[in-house]
Design goal:
single chain, 6 helices
Length: 130
């Protein structure tokens, strides 16, 4: 984000002040090497995209995890789910979703006769004193 603003001609100091960051934290983060998780994610993303493409875009996280394990890549399903979300990939859901009620948008709604107040309240008490 700060690099994007810097490329548009704004200074790093100004961008950091607007975002509520210190300049020293920005530069320290920029110097820091990539974490082990980030490096691993960069290795896994192309593999996940490849398996997803080979399946014709049908495989979800479970099947991609199994396919990667068959290829000898040890990876957790939650990691595949997270990376698929980042990549914007999703598997195909078979069958039709059932919808039991389709509301008519132009149908009149019944009036609120008891004058309910549905605003959220503070703490909910269970009746016991604490």
């Amino acid at each position: 984000m700060i690099e994007h603003l810097r490329d548009k001609g704004l200074g790093v100091g100004f961008a950091c002040r607007v975002l509520g960051l210190s300049e020293s934290a920005y530069y320290a983060r920029k110097k820091r090497p990539k974490s082990a998780r980030r490096l691993r994610d960069e290795q896994l993303k192309p593999l996940i995209e490849q398996v997803h493409a080979e399946s014709g875009g049908t495989y979800g996280a479970r099947r991609i995890t199994r396919a990667l394990r068959r290829k000898g890549v040890v990876v957790a399903r939650c990691t595949v789910e997270r990376l698929m979300r980042e990549l914007g990939l999703e598997g195909v859901i078979r069958g039709q979703r059932r919808r039991t009620t389709v509301p008519e948008p132009s149908a009149p709604r019944p009036p609120d006769l008891v004058d309910r107040d549905s605003r959220p309240r503070g703490r909910i008490s269970c009746g016991w004193r604490t």
